[in-house]
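Sanity check

After download, print the first record. It should look like this:
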Amino acid sequence: MHDYEITYSHKFEDRTKFEKHLRESKTDEILIIKNGLVTDTSISNVVFFDGVKYFTPSTPLLKGTKRARLIEEGIIQVEEIGLNDIQKFQHFYLINALLDLSEEKKFSIEKIIL
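Expected C-alpha cells:
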C-alpha cells in the first residue's frame, strides 16, 4: 500500500486509514510504503532477511519496543529499504510486542505482492 500522508507515531492514534487500506487490499496484511520507502505493516514492524543478516526499515511509522530491543541487542540492523530493494531479500518477519522474530512468523519474500 502506498500512502504519502499516513502517520502513526503513537499506538493510541486513529487507525481508520489502516483499516480502510486493509479492507481495500482484500489481503490478510498490508506492507506500507511511504514516499517510496518501506515503513511497517498495519499490525507490526517488519524485518527482512537476506540469507545472512536481518534488517529493519529506517523509516517505521511506529518505532516499536520489540524493534528497538532487537536493534539494541545487535540482532537486526537499520537500513533504508526502498520498494525496489525488497527483491534482494529472501524472507521477512512481522514483529511487535506480541510477535517474536521466529520461524512461525517467517514468510517468503514472494508473499509480497507489489
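If your output differs, re-run the checksum step. Summary of this record's structure: The first strand starts at residue 31 and ends at 34.
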